[in-house]
Inverse folding.
């Protein structure tokens, strides 16, 4: 508890006869000592002991130590931090949490609805540890509830740490609120690092970002999207920017629960994985049938680096379909796409208003030959399709035009317009690509003249005329 009295009303403050320190809470308002000789508006004159003391509404950044927080890793700072947090929120004051380890045993919660602000600073990236020595499982160290106010809010430099490897707590729950940035934070020893939570009828959580933060290996899920039955599905803009994630064998970094729809969601993350078999780690575990949309850059590397002797593939996504627009970087084929659609410079419209869904297919599948070929993309006419095959000493391009996408029963029409062989010092003939359109607007590509053993990279680019364009490299 703080080393000064917490007074609840103005009358208590004005009649208090004990020793008063530099700051007081009255009616959830923060007062500080007034040193001037005048008595301006907002100043209370208090009879403290034998001297007359003046107090004024404070506009200072609130230091957690003023409220009795010790930060020594031993004392229970729950009550002090709760008073500190809510004093800042209720008075729209910035909050300062100095370096230290602050042990708590219950959830710190605050409600920022109604235009309230939340702004927490520390001494640097992950410089302050919020150690949640929990009493109840599946509860958060910090819970922030709010509304749709888009005023920017920030929490920076906190290491949210659970008790040990068996910890089943949650670092932060962001519930029914918007525009929160978690910056330069770290999440460890927890079931979930950050949970985005739509809770209640038509409630939603949007435009919240975790940035420049780290999720360590003992954090089972870095991010979770979840909702109650009647809450809205929307999680627009909730995601990650320039974060790092360490994914243990058997774990997934992002968990999307049933009915949740993240879309326009940033996902720029460097992932180190510890797979012990192919696809035993995944970036996204999608349990929802809503086809979430993410964009950004994913870089994936096994622990030990690209020269690790046993390289097992990591699934970018598993279970239900996920859309991703951007780049996926990896070493030595350490990634399998899983149930993923890759996009380039194209954001899917959840209502179907944008056509040209480009499905990622490995070149070894594309170029196996045969009469049926492999499905590449769903397009709607009119559209241009460029197929490029290349390797050192070899490049070949063909331009096709989709004149008709089919009507569900009759196949569509796809005609070659231009063939361009830039150079060829490897194969005696062109690759013999054949494109066709089936009745469901699926583009079929096949080749009878080369296979994956030729180590040729195939790139397909679909341009929707009068709409948008999409292109993606397909590398074996």
């Amino acid at each position: 508890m703080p080393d000064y009295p917490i007074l609840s009303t103005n009358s208590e403050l004005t009649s208090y006869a004990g020793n008063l320190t530099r700051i007081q809470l009255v009616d959830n308002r923060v007062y500080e000592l007034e040193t001037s000789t005048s008595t301006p508006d907002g100043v209370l004159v208090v009879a403290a002991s034998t001297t007359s003391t003046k107090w004024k509404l404070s506009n200072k950044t609130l230091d957690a130590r003023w409220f009795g927080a010790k930060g020594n890793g031993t004392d229970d700072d729950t009550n002090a931090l709760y008073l500190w947090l809510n004093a800042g929120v209720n008075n729209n004051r910035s909050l300062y949490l100095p370096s230290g380890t602050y042990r708590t045993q219950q959830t710190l919660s605050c409600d920022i609805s109604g235009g309230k602000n939340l702004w927490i600073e520390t001494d640097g990236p992950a410089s302050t540890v919020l150690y949640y020595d929990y009493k109840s499982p599946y509860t958060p160290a910090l819970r922030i509830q709010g509304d749709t106010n888009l005023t920017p809010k920030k929490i920076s430099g906190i290491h949210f740490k659970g008790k040990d490897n068996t910890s089943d707590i949650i670092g932060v729950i962001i519930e029914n609120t918007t525009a929160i940035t978690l910056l330069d934070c770290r999440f460890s020893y927890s079931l979930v690092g950050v949970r985005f939570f739509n809770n209640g009828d038509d409630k939603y959580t949007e435009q919240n970002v975790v940035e420049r933060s780290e999720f360590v290996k003992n954090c089972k899920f870095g991010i979770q999207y979840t909702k109650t039955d009647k809450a809205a599905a929307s999680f627009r803009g909730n995601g990650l920017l320039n974060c790092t994630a360490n994914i243990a064998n058997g774990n997934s970094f992002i968990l999307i629960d049933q009915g949740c729809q993240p879309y326009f969601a940033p996902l720029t993350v460097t992932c180190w994985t510890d797979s012990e078999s192919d696809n035993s780690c995944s970036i996204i575990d999608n349990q929802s049938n809503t086809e979430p949309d993410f964009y950004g850059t994913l870089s994936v590397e096994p622990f030990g680096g690209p020269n690790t002797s046993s390289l097992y593939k990591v699934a970018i996504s598993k279970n239900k379909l996920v859309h991703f627009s951007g780049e996926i970087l990896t070493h030595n084929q350490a990634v399998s796409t899983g149930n993923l659609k890759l996009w380039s410079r194209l954001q899917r419209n959840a209502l179907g208003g944008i056509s040209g869904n480009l499905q990622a297919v490995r070149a070894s599948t594309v170029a196996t030959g045969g009469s049926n070929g492999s499905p590449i993309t769903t397009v709607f006419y009119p559209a241009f399709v460029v197929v490029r095959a290349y390797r050192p000493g070899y490049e070949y391009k063909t331009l096709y035009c989709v004149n008709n996408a089919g009507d569900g029963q009759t196949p569509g029409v796809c005609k070659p317009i231009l063939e361009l062989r830039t150079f060829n010092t490897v194969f005696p003939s062109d690759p013999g690509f054949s494109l066709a359109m089936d009745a469901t607007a699926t583009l079929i590509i096949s080749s009878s003249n080369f296979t994956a053993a030729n180590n040729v990279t195939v790139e397909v680019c679909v341009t929707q005329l009068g709409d948008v364009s999409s292109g993606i490299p397909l590398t074996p």
User: Anything to note?
Assistant: The chain has three helices and 39 strands. Residues 344-380, 466-476 have pLDDT under 50 and may be disordered.
